[in-house]
Amino acid sequence: MANDLSDLGRFSDPSLLILASLAGGPKHGYAMIEDIERLSGTKLGPGTLYGALARLEGRGLIEPLPAEDRRRPYRLTGLGAAVLREQLTSLRAFATTGLQRLATA
Amino acid sequence: MKSLAFRLLRLYPPAWRARYGEELAALLLDMSACSPFDLLDLLRGAFDAHLHPELVATKGPHTMPTRLRASEIAVFAAFILFVVAGLGFQKSSEEIMKADASNAAINIPYLLVEGGAVVALLAVLAGGLPIAYAALRYALANRRRDILALFCVPVVSFAALVAYAFVALQVANGASQSTGHHLFIGLIAVFLLGAVASTWAVAAAIRRAEVSPGLFRFALLPAAVATLAMALMLAAVVAWGLALRAADPAAFNGNDGILATSTLLTWIGHIVLMAAATLVAAVAVLRALRSGAPTARAA
């Protein structure tokens, strides 16, 4: 399914982080690693990053831009933005419910 | 650690490296250092890429149609081999053609070889020049010195050939026949070395550059035309030898071959080289037509 990242196995979390990073604008690999580390405290390894990028590109959630001095930036597609919104909304609902339960515990 | 990381990139499948290898290498260059975690992560990534070859089967708009490109590079290399054999044929047959100029059975195949050479050259230029130009523009725009250096190889090879020929002419002037013979062998060696190095360098430059898949699709027809012209020339060289054998057995069994060797053996050698080149080109074009072209259309 193109609108779900859960079937990506170990690449589902990195994929979500990549989509969130690209929501801030196109980035190449190293810029993504740095941005994701700032955003979430997670440092993606190069193999994981490109494994996730290949999957996201294959699903049409991101698209490559022309390379700039060997570095190829990627950007979010319309479908990618929709999937990211859906995933983050789901996470927000999850977080809200969890916090409400903690408050009443 | 970093050099080890670059070595680990070689563990990825070729198709994966063709698509992502360069940008992943750029990422490794950007990283200040590679930790053992990064090396393990690359190892896992390579393993995953082998498990999921379909990840690079889906072509993005900037993905190079690698099979089509490889096929056309093979046609180009085969053409160069054919040209080398053709130049040898031209050199070894010039004396015979002077002696048997009025014989139509020998002349017509010879004219077919000349005509085929023009057609094949024009086809290779029509298909190859736009690709070479695009690769050169890419190299200049992206400051890719490695690609620019590769494009310099044919120029340097030609300069070396001219320089050798100039020096050899000076040395050969007034020297013994044996010295002249050795100088000519040297000239052939420099020419062959230059041809091999130039073909390899141009092919490597095209592989490294980012060239529009449309140019490779466009080049498929010229590649097919060049291959047909090579097949025609091969048939004409065979017909030329058979006609010479029938019309002038003395010349056919003489020693007008390369470096005054047997005409018959030289003729057979040319046929073997030309047949090998034509076969490589034909297989490459068929591969491109069967699988490369549809993939490229989808890109």
Put simply, the count of helices of chain B is 10
Helix content of chain A: 55-70%
Distance between the termini of chain B: 37 Å
| Estimated share of beta-strand residues of chain A | 5-15%
Spans of at least 5 consecutive residues with low confidence of chain B: 60-64, 292-299
Count of discrete alpha- or pi-helical segments spanning 4 or more residues of chain A: 4
How would you spell out the order of helices and strands of chain A?
HHHEEH
Radius of gyration of chain A: 15 Å
Helix and strand content put the structural class of chain A at mainly alpha
Distance between the termini of chain A: 37 Å
Uncertain residue ranges of chain A: none
- Let me know the largest β-sheet of chain A: 2 strands, antiparallel
Question: What are the key terms here?
Answer:
heterodimer, A: 105 residues, two-stranded antiparallel ribbon, 4 helices, B: 299 residues, elongated
Write the layout of secondary structure elements.
The complex is a heterodimer of chains A (105) and B (299).
Chain A: H1 12-22, H2 29-40, H3 46-58, E1 62-64, E2 74-76, H4 78-104
Antiparallel strand pairs in A: 1-2
Chain B: H1 2-9, H2 14-30, H3 36-51, H4 66-99, H5 104-141, H6 145-172, H7 177-208, H8 213-247, H9 249-252, H10 263-298
